[in-house]
């Protein structure tokens, strides 16, 4: 079978480059190093005053990394716009794709939760709420800095499906590449810490005061994070023609909407079950082919239990699904979370290393039926990774990634 075709006969889509801005600093390698060194990067927020909040932690981009943005991309009132541009530049250079070229059709597919919404905090802090003409009310401005440093000759699309945003953008970019609408798809998600977000999660009583502990019996909530993750997607034959080497294959994507509750997934995890089955069916794989489930794993009481039961149900096979979440280290980077996790999945495939549940102390019996990875991680063959994300309103988006030599084509 032609390795540059999927089993359904469509062109194989591969990941040719990755770029990241995260609590570990600038760069996809910095992100992966923090994962392997098991560093917990949440701590007291320093960018603005949190003294009135009961939970005051976040996973901020280090101040030094923020300062380094000045030498890399033009200024912008929103840090998120700059995070996204820097991650995109890194990913394109990693892929060997010129960022200033009209020789290829390059499209941008970006996901976010609230776009440049943190700019609204400035008005709130000044005791006024004048949103007329403010950048936060114009989500397209989020992409302005990226357009200044990358020549975009194809479509530019911004998605806002809650915290499933990164995976939704990856799926859209993959479809555009497979359909021949673009040659290069710059796909990912972005988020910036905001008082608005912190206030919202505080009102939902969903914030941990110290540490995120996904799947732990003593988990007490999540901690907001920020950053950007970008993957460059191309057809396998295009990468091969220029002598490039893909980092991974995008085997399948699937999405669903429970439409059950404004903030919680369906108790039975119906949306997640359907997306897992959808990915496996499209890739013509079975549950036993999945080596690692990169979980949404927010550390909240309701979500983790639902996710664990849904994964156990959807991947019932000869062995329990191997599951871990990196949010214990990086917090919940909202619009950027799924994209950053997809980048970690790409690294895990290359390294044959399953990241651990770093902050897990006592697994919750209510999260049974899955094989929770020990905090130290696990050396094991990793050929297929399922990476999943939930969004408010019941949205679920799942991507299935595999080694380039794995049987997608």
From TrEMBL:
Gene from which the chain derives: fabF-1_2
PANTHER family (alphabetical): BETA KETOACYL-ACYL CARRIER PROTEIN SYNTHASE (PTHR11712:SF347), POLYKETIDE SYNTHASE-RELATED (PTHR11712)
Gene3D superfamilies: 3.40.47.10
Key words of the record: Membrane, Transferase, Transmembrane, Transmembrane helix
Top-level taxon in the UniProt lineage: Bacteria
Family: Belongs to the thiolase-like superfamily. Beta-ketoacyl-ACP synthases family.
Matching InterPro entries: Beta-ketoacyl_synthase, Ketoacyl_synth_AS, Ketoacyl_synth_C, Ketoacyl_synth_N, PKS_Beta-ketoAc_synthase_dom, Thiolase-like
Record domain Ketosynthase family 3 (KS3): where: 10-403
TM regions (residue ranges): 12-32
Originating organism: Plantactinospora mayteni
Name assigned to this protein: Beta-ketoacyl synthase
């Amino acid at each position: 079978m032609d390795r540059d075709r999927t089993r359904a006969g469509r062109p194989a889509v591969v990941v040719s480059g990755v770029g990241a801005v995260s609590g570990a600093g600038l760069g996809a390698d910095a992100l992966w190093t923090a994962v392997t060194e098991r560093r917990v990067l949440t701590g007291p927020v320093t960018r603005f005053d949190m003294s009135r909040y009961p939970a005051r932690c976040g996973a901020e981009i280090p101040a030094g990394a923020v300062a380094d943005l000045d030498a890399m991309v033009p200024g912008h009132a929103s840090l998120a716009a700059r995070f996204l541009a820097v991650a995109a530049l890194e990913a394109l250079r990693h892929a060997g794709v010129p960022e200033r070229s009209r020789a290829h059709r390059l499209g941008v597919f970006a996901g976010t939760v609230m776009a440049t919404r943190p700019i609204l905090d400035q008005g709130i802090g000044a005791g006024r709420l004048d949103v007329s003409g403010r950048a936060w009310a114009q989500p397209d401005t989020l992409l302005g800095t990226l357009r200044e440093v990358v020549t975009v000759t194809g479509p530019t699309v911004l998605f806002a499906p809650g915290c499933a945003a990164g995976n939704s953008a990856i799926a859209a970019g993959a479809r555009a590449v497979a359909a021949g609408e673009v040659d290069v798809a710059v796909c990912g998600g972005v988020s910036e810490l905001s008082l608005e977000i912190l206030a919202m999660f505080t009102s939902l009583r969903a914030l941990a005061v110290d540490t995120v502990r996904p799947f732990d019996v003593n988990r007490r909530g999540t901690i907001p994070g920020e950053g950007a993750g970008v993957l460059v997607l191309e057809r396998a034959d295009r990468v091969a023609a220029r002598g490039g080497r893909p980092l991974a294959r995008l085997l399948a994507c699937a999405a669903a909407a429970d439409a059950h509750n404004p903030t919680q997934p369906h108790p039975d995890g119906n949306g997640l079950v359907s997306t897992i089955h959808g990915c496996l069916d499209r890739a013509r794989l079975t549950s036993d082919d999945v080596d690692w489930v990169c979980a949404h794993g927010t550390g909240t009481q309701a979500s983790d239990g639902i996710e664990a039961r849904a994964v156990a149900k959807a991947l019932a096979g000869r062995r329990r699904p191997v599951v871990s979440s990196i949010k214990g280290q990086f917090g919940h980077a909202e619009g950027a979370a799924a994209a950053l996790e997809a980048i970690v999945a790409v690294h895990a495939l290359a390294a044959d290393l399953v990241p651990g549940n770093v902050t897990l102390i006592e697994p919750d019996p209510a999260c049974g039926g899955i094989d929770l990875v020990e905090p130290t991680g696990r050396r094991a063959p990793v050929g297929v990774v399922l990476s999943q994300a939930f969004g408010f309103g019941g949205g679920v988006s799942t991507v299935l990634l595999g080694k380039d030599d794995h049987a997608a084509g």
